[in-house]
Amino acid sequence: MLYECSSGLLGNGHHLHGISTISFQAWLSQSKRSKDYALPNSSWSQDMMDLYSRFLEMCKDGTWKRIPSYSDTADHVPGKACVHLESLKLANEKERKGTRFFPRNLDTEGVGFEYAMFLNPSEKRMVCLFQPGPYLEGHRGFAHGGSTATIIDSTVGGCAIFVAGRVMTANLSINYRNPIPLGSVVLVDSKVDQIEGRKVFLSCHVRSIDGQTLHAEATALFIQLNSTKSLQQQVSSQ
Ligand SMILES: CCCCCCCC(=O)SCCNC(=O)CCNC(=O)[C@H](O)C(C)(C)COP(=O)(O)OP(=O)(O)OC[C@H]1O[C@@H](n2cnc3c(N)ncnc32)[C@H](O)[C@@H]1OP(=O)(O)O
């Protein structure tokens, strides 16, 4: 996830948990080369379009930032924190051919994860507008619980990346309260609750857009990875 309008997001040159705006700027220009999938397309329902427009409106005063989404995970991680992932991406370009960021793994619009995320930096909060398509079916007519888990993981993950850079999910606990109808639009609302050293604790609620139905609630723990060690080194040393 890339944080647009990075000037003013963290303050010029200011560090927040190891991420600097300078690296955000570099990351901004670098990631702009990739296709952004978090933009309206013909599969978006009127509800999705209305909600998207409402959030775009709230971006105007800088309170919220629209977060683009790409098909490569490396493009979602900011600046310096992304260096190792980026070199991993370049070094393994051949082997990586065909790999895709999981929620961006389908080219046909509307059949899978249709979503757009918005970040509220001062509240350390990430909201995702999610419209599950027919290929995410679990029980007939409803989204598979794994797809709900995926969108929750990505939303809280984006929030954790905002405060801690390169992170991995250590724990994700979900209570499913009401099934999500395919083609409906739900709001995935996550926030950082606490940071303890390398540990980022978050919570998340998935609700219908009228707020009347709670579909799921979750807590998550993300661990900030050691920035001096590449992801590849970490994986091979385990
Ligand atoms: C675009 C962006 C969206 C991305 C969203 C998608 C994210 C993902 O899908 S990530 C994939 C799923 N996750 C994984 O595969 C992670 C697998 N696990 C690991 O690699 C490692 O266990 C990892 C990196 C999480 C932590 O390992 P490591 O860095 O060695 O940390 P470690 O020293 O064990 O633990 C650090 C602290 O966290 C705590 N901790 C670690 N794991 C857990 C856990 N599961 N539950 C509770 N506490 C934990 C430890 O107790 C320790 O606490 P303290 O500092 O108080 O002693």
CATH class: Alpha Beta
Strand content: 25-35%
Instruction: Tell me the major beta sheet.
Output: 7 strands, antiparallel
Helical amount among residues, as a percent range? 25-40%
Distance between the ends: 27 Å
Provide a count of the helices. Answer: 6
Output mean pLDDT: 83
Structural class: alpha+beta
| Bound small molecules, deduplicated | octanoyl-coenzyme A
Low-confidence stretches: 1-25, 230-235
Main location: membrane
EC number: 3.1.2.2
Family: Belongs to the THEM4/THEM5 thioesterase family.
Domain Thioesterase: 141-213
Report on the architecture of this protein.
The protein is of the alpha+beta class and 238 residues long. It has a single domain (15-236), classed as Thiol Ester Dehydrase, Chain A (Roll), CATH 3.10.129. Helices cover 27% and strands 27% of the residues. It has six helices and nine strands. A seven-stranded antiparallel sheet has the order 3-4-5-7-8-9-6, sandwiched between helices. The chain has a two-stranded antiparallel sheet with strand order 1-2. A hairpin with a 2-residue loop joins strand 1 and strand 2. The longest helix has 20 residues, at 145-164. Residues 1-25 and 230-235 have low confidence and may be disordered. Bound molecules: octanoyl-coenzyme A (CO8). Octanoyl-coenzyme A is lined by residues 1, 73, 76, 153-154, 157-158, 161, 168-171, 197-199, 221, 223, 225.
